[in-house]
Structure formats: C-alpha cells, structure tokens
Write the structure tokens for this entry.
Amino acid sequence: MNRRLDVLVCSGAACVSSHSAEVKAALEREIARRDLGDEVRLVETGCMGPCELGPVLLVYPDGAFYIRVTPEDAVDIVEEHFLKGRPVQRLLWEAPEARKIAEEKKLVPFFEKQQKIVLSNCGEIDPENIEEYIATGGYEALGLALTEHTPDALIETIVESKLRGRGGAGFPTGLKWRFVAGESGQTKYVVCNADEGDPGAFMDRSLLEGDPHAIIEGMEIAAYAIGATRGYVYVRAEYPLAIRRLKTALDQARGHGLLGKDILETGFSFDIEVRIGAGAFVCGEETALIASIEGERGVPRSRPPYPSTSGVFDAPTLINNAETWGNIRHIVLHGAEWFASIGTPESPGTKVFALSGKVVNTGLVEVPMGTTLRELIFDIGGGIPDGKALKAVQTGGPSGGCIPAEHLDTPIDYESLKRLGAIMGSGGVIVMDEDNCMVNIAKYFLEFTCDESCGKCVPCRAGTRQMLDILERITQGNGRLDDIEQLRTLGTTIVSTSLCGLGQSAPNPVLSTLEHFNEEYLAHITDKRCDAHVCTALIRYAIDVDACKACDKCRTVCPVSAIRGTPGQPPYVLDEDVCVRCGRCAEVCPFGAIRIESGRTN
Amino acid sequence: MKLEELRKIRERASKELSLRKGDARVKVVVGMGTSGIAAGARDVMAAFLDEIGMRGLTDVVVTQTGERGLASSEPVVEVHVEGENAVTYGQMTADKARRVVAEHLVNGNPVSDYVIEVRG
C-alpha cells in the first residue's frame, strides 16, 4: 500500500447541488498532473453535516476540513497540501467563537459537541462500497444475531434498550417487534418508512445516501427476530440519489450473500424491495404507506387493526422509521445497557436533526437525547446570523409546534417537547428570529397540511381549510377578535376527530403559536400591525425626508410608479395608496432612506 | 459467505481504512518544502510508502510538512513513535528511508548515522 492520504469528498445531496462532482473531477485532474494517483485516494461519502458550507472535503490522516471548495481551488489543495503538506489555510473552516483556524475536524465546535451513532459512517465511508461498510463492523451484528441469538432474545434486547420510534411519535420499538412476533401466520413483512415529507427535514435522505447498509442490516435483524421473509423500503421519488445508493447497496449485499437466500449460510432468507412514492405527505402515515405499497391510492384507514396485526397485503407488518433502523445494529453489537446509558432514562440514545432557518450552521447533526435546544442552536448551530435575536424554534414540521425563546434550556426528549405543545417529530428544527412573523409561520404550515390532506375525513379536509381562511383574514388585516377562539375550537376539534396522524397534528403549529405568541395574533387583529414586517397588508413604506438624496433609484425600480420626484431635488414622495409593498425601493436605496413601518395604511 | 468469511473481509478492508482512524503508532513526517523537493524528498517519501506497504505496517501514517529551515540537511524526515522522543533524520535518500523503516519503525532502534536532532 503506497497510499498516504484519503480525501473524503462529501457527496450528500446538498454538496452535490453545490457542485461537489466538479470539485472531485478537478481534484482528480490535478492529482493526475502531479502524479499522485497512487498516494492519494478520493472517496465519495454521504453527508458530513455542515450543508451550508458545501462543498466540503475532509482529508485524512491529518483531518483537515475544507469548506466552500470550488473546482479552481483544486490546484492549490493538490500542490500545497497533497504535495507539500501545507493545508490551504484560506479554505479551512474558521470557527467564529474560537477565532482561530481549526485545522482538525474534531476541533470544530460543530463536530465536537455531537455524538454520532446512527451517522457514525455518514461522511466517513464510501456508501457505494460494501467493503468500507464491512470494515467499520458492518453486518457483524447480523452475523451475531443469526448465529448466537434467538429471535426472542433479540426482541428482548431491543425492548430493554428502550429505543423509541424516531419517526416522531416515540412508540417503544421493542414492543412493536414483540407484537408482530406474537402474530401467527406464514407471511410477515418488515417496512422502512423513509417517506420524509416535513419541509426542512433531510435526516432519512442523508442516512440513505450516506450509509444505506445500516438500514438494510437493521431490517434484516428485525426480519429474523419476528419471522419475516420480505421487506420494503418506502422512499419518495424526490430522493433520486438516496434511491440509487440504496439499490446499489441492496445489489452488493445480495452479491456478498448478505441478503436474499440463505444469508451467511445460516438458512435464513430475506429480501428487500424498494417502493418509490410519488411524494404525498400523507403516505408517511403508516396505513396510507401500506396502501401505497400495495399499489392502492395512498389514503389512511382507521386503526385498529394496527399494521402489526394486519398490514401489507393484510399480513402482520413491522414498520419503523429509517433512523430507527439505523440504531438496531449498534444495539445488537454493544448491548441494550450501553444504549440505555446514552441520552435520558425515558428517551435513550441520540437523535438526528436537520438544522435550518435562521442559524449560522445549517445542516445535519446528531446529539444525545437530553441535549438542550440552546446547545443545539448556539453551540453546534453557531447561533443566529447577523446579530439578530432568536424568537422561536419550530420542531416536528407541520405536525409540530413553535417553542419560544424563553424555553431554550428545555432538554430535547419526547416528553419535554410535548409539554411545550411541540413534538420531537422526525427531526426537522427550524430556527426563527425577530424577522419571522409567527402568525405567518402558522399560516405557512397550515397551507401545507391543508394542501396535503388526502380528503378522506371531514375534520381534516374541511377543518384545516376553515382555519386557513381565518389565518388569511388575520394576516390581511381583516381579523376579528373572536377569530382566536374560533381557531382554538376548530383546532382542538380537528385534533380529536381526524382519522389519521396528519389531521390529528395539523393544527399544532396554530395551537402552539396561539399559546406562546398570543400577543402577536392580537397585534394583527386589533392594532393591524405586523411588527416583524412580514404581512404585507399590515406594513407601509415611507421615505425619510432627511436621508433622501433624490438619487432617483427608487423611482426607477418601483413597478407601480408609486414614487414621485425629480433627480437632485429631495425629498421624493411615496404614495401609500399605490404602493404594493414589494420592497424593491428599500433594497436599492443606497442611503437607507426607505423605512418600513408596522401598521396598516389608513 | 459464512460469518468467518465476512470477518476476513473486514480484516482486509479495515486496513484500507486505517488512514481514517487516527490511531497510528508511528507518524513519519517528510519535509516537502521547495528545497526538500529539490533535494529529492519525493523519492524519499515514495520509498517510505513502498517499504511500509511491502511490510504491511498498518499502524504507520506518512505525512508531509513544509520548510523547516534546515536546507543544507534536506531531505529532512521526522519520525514520531508514540511515547518516544521525536527523531529527525537529515540528508535522506530512498535507500536510507528503507533502512529507517526496518530498523527504527519495525525494530525500534533509531538509525544514529542519519540522526540530526532528537526532541523530547
């Protein structure tokens, strides 16, 4: 072996879209030109986490972490670093808190505070090379399960680990396994729910892209434990890279005798098929997902019977979320006690989050349960950009709620988040600052669920529409005082009477903002103000007569000719009745003379 | 494939990943500044890599550094063995590199003929 450098090129979807493939090609060219082909190996990996900073590169053994690399940077990286051994300082990740260039990945606070179990291989190995997965201990858990454990013992291990469903609801995974194992019947199914639909969520996608074998191995262990012979991974068509890598992984596992007939020559047979969904949000609900797998229209049905009794093709079916599957092999390898020692007693283990919104380091992170929101957003996320103040944190997507800034020290676990009117959810975390209008945020999520409602039950179909109408009225300045009570009544009714989880959770963003940001609703309804300057009907633009220099820029960009004036003769005048509040004038004004004021035009 | 075969693959494949583990016992640092390269540091590094590969040493990483200011002694190579003093060799050649691998890296005896500095 003459190799001395492993250069890991992040090829998660975010880095691919910021042109990591071109960076890799440029590196390949430069490496060839310098005749370093034998000494330097380029490896494409899954998501490394800091998506905002992509394309990112990680160079081993020194651990140098490069960010925002362009194809043009390849010349310097290869000549200075790969050839001469001097990491290119200008491309290394500078941690703002540390005020020094962090040369090694582990020194970057973003990574330092994380604990990666599910994502341990993500960004560290080539997901399209099964040998790299095997090198990290891959399929050892399956081997041990098949040769040294009874199915009952495996189920007890999962029960004792207290692992809970990572899809969001937090049902004890081991109990689910036990239910399905207890069902009689020749045919049983194992399903991976990777129908990730929350806006701003990309945990399942990243795991499928970065470590597909971990999901396959978890499903195989469960299949052996409950007596299933067939499995499905249900993943949406919007994830083409995840689907491709998963299919490659399935083929490689079959080729190595690790999937299919007579796995590891133990007589156990199990195979997995990929089912591609069309992207309906409701198909993340388990009964709708099952209908979709069967080739039916993806609509939910009432439970019971639960899928554990009657699921895919009416057979007992075990459904777990992708991240849940990713935990299984680690629990089998290290034991239930080890797993239960991480996180909190009631919510053990770690949780993967997709950080987005008004936060410096957006990306994919994994932390032990019990980590506080403050640590997640400020220590790992790097805080709020542009010196703004944090206003709220939205967890759980359209099914979740908004947690106000005063609860930042809440530990992240299923119960604590529920008490605040939010939910753990699948892991989407959207950070909001003072420029976000909470009424508008609630409206945004409700628009989403109203649109995604399958229409089968009345509370969800008609109720979310009614709530949306009220919210639209409020944001347009036509809200009435009894609207708040109406929203509450509608919301609680929809929660208690909807058929499936979509409707039962759809009002949450509204209910939680009503609880924590009631005064903002009142400002919209009674004062006709939107202090975040988001709701265009409730703001006005005005020209500051002292600051205006009559440069004429605003007048030329105004699409409705609402601004009048003569160049060189300040001040200009803005006609509020004509203004459509597009904000173009404020963007182009070089003197900051265009003010935005809260409150409706008279 | 049986479980034993899987474990054999793992043994072989984990060697491929040894660079990423960061638990090397020995670190060989080759000075690759302009004067180092001019004096033949590339050949020295290639010899280290080749000899280490031939002997199947998996707990050694080879890396480079820039100019250290010892132009007259180039190519300069530092050997860091865990728990021991760092040894600097000067005026290295490919043949000397192979001898350092055999005597210092494998047998634990620094090759005193080429040593120009020992740091605690």
Residues 96-102 of chain A have pLDDT under 50 and may be disordered. Chain A touches chain B through 35 residues (CB under 8 Å).
